[in-house]
Amino acid sequence: MIKNLELELEKLKTKILRLGSEVEKNLFRAEKALLHWDENMAKEIIDSDEDIDRLEISVEEKCLQILAQHHPVASDLRFVVTVLKINNDLERIGDLAVKIADRVLILVQKKLIELKKPDSVQFPEQFAHMFAETKKMVKMCLDSFVEEDADLAYKVCLWDNEVDEAKTVIRKQTEKILLETPEQHKYIAMLLSVSRSLERIADHATHIAENVLYMLQGEIVRHEMDDLDEN
Amino acid sequence: MPQTNPAIRQISDAIVEVNNLNLFYGDKQALSNISMSFPRNKVTALIGPSGCGKSTLIRCFNRMNDLIETISIKGEIIIDGQNIYDTKMDAIELRRRVGMVFQKWNPFPKSIYENVIYGLRIAGVNNKKILDETVEKSLKRAAIWDEVKDRLHDSAMGLSGGQMQRLCIARAIAVEPEVILMDEPCSALDPRSTAKIEELIRELQGDYTIIIVTHNMQQAARVSDFTAYLYLGELIEYDLTKKVFTTPTQKETEDYITGRFG
Questions:
Q1: Mean pLDDT by 10 residues, chain B (262 residues)
Q2: Neighbour order of strands in the sheet with B179-183
Q3: Are B184 and B213 within 8 A, CB to CB?
Q4: pTM, whole model, 2 decimals?
Q5: Residue B194 and residue B202: Cα distance in Å, rounded?
Q6: Per the CATH hierarchy, to which homologous superfamily does domain A2-230 belong?
Q7: Which of A2, A78, A219 has its CB closest to that of B259?
């Protein structure tokens, strides 16, 4: 009996890790698409999102099947519940990568990038930084899940501030640019949307890390972490 | 050392208190240094692998073990302020206050009616009105009244297993006990009858203190407020059921309830 459950939990872990790696791949693609205005890369993200959605459903079905057939308890229960929750966060990260891809397509196809004045806009650098921080968070939260590393999960929760700061820098710059060159407003609006998407991806990575902490320690830390942020 | 949640160590309204209980069958020690309190009008489940001492422990609470000659018991069990192993304790009165339901239902080969009032009869109660009222009240409380009210004078032996077990619960309730001990009450029942008994346990909780021994982990999780895990005669962990089944503190408990051991 227990061997069956262990086998099922192993299968579930493989599935969720596959989903994690697909989502991470799309986040890398989104970075390339934006930093190089790469239309094809953006299309690749949009095309592969269907696979991510399918994987998400398959993970959820596996969780429900395990709950119904094996009635897991204690650490097994916490593992299944955690997978069920981070499954959702990963799928949302996938959707946000698609949203970034959409913005890139709009920018390229409507030739909005031509409005950009390279002298005054330093976005690629700022975005490179924001992408790097966000990717780091996603990687760290997945690593904390695989390695069952609570310290790393805590680190992710605290890292969120870095991404928030990067977003603030971009917002302040855009405000300044809009005042100086209002004709760039369409271009700026798209870029602001991208920075918002990245910020939300970081939030999902934080949720994943919080759920990993629950899985490992059995305590729900969600709101404690919010308090920590506020202080 | 057993890991007991501080909240449980200081149960303010404990009905049964076990202090440093050691029990031997001849030379063999079956219970070692058990200290725990059972809260009044709650359901407490005792779980653990076969031979861990859980049935031995609940049999101490109504001195069922007295009948075993080789047994020796040290320590104390206090029920409502009285040490039940005190020489002044009347074992028959104790067994009225602490009823028991067994794994295999054991109705007497008598009518349903006579089964319920058996305890009252031997206590010398013969008033028909009181007896009738007790039968109705107890059978209703045990959720079997509707099924048997038209055949109260038929033999109890014609009932189904699940009905017989509920009749035994009615018989236990009829003498108005404070504590009901249940030793694997559903292990010989089909899922539907099991569900009925479990529902009944939840309904009785609040009016009676129920201590249940079960091998069925899901059952312990479903019906109890508190769960104690015993292993090799020792209390390993004792906590709120929801805590034990989501975040046990002891590795032994974790291994047992997840099925990795035992």
A1: 58 90 96 96 96 94 90 94 92 92 93 96 92 96 94 96 94 95 92 91 93 94 96 96 95 92 68
A2: B3-4, B234-240, B226-231, B43-47, B209-213, B179-183, B98-101
A3: yes
A4: 0.84
A5: 12
A6: Phosphate transport system protein phou homolog 2; domain 2 (1.20.58.220)
A7: A2
Q: Are A61 and B240 in contact (CB under 8 A)?
A: no
Kindly state the tokens that stand for A215: 């899985």
Q: Report yes or no: A192 and A171 within 8 Å, Cβ to Cβ.
A: yes
Whole-Å CA distances, A215 to A150, A220, B195, B246: 9, 9, 31, 10
Pairing mode, strands B179-183 and B98-101:
parallel
Beta strands across the sheet bearing B28-39: B28-39, B14-25, B71-79, B82-83
More confident residue, A117 or A82: A82
Domain B3-257 has CATH 3.40.50.300: yes
Domain ranges of chain A: 2-230
Per the CB < 8 Å rule, is A71 touching B218? yes
**Kindly report the CA angle at B137 between B133 and B142, in degrees rounded to 5?**
150
- With CA atoms as reference, the chain B residue closest to A76 would be B258
**A:210-229 residues touching chain B, CB 8 A cutoff:** 218-219
| ipTM of the complex model | 0.76
Q: Is the pLDDT of residue A124 over 70?
A: no
Contact across the interface for B258 and A75, Cβ inside 8 Å = yes
Average pLDDT over every residue of A53-76: 95
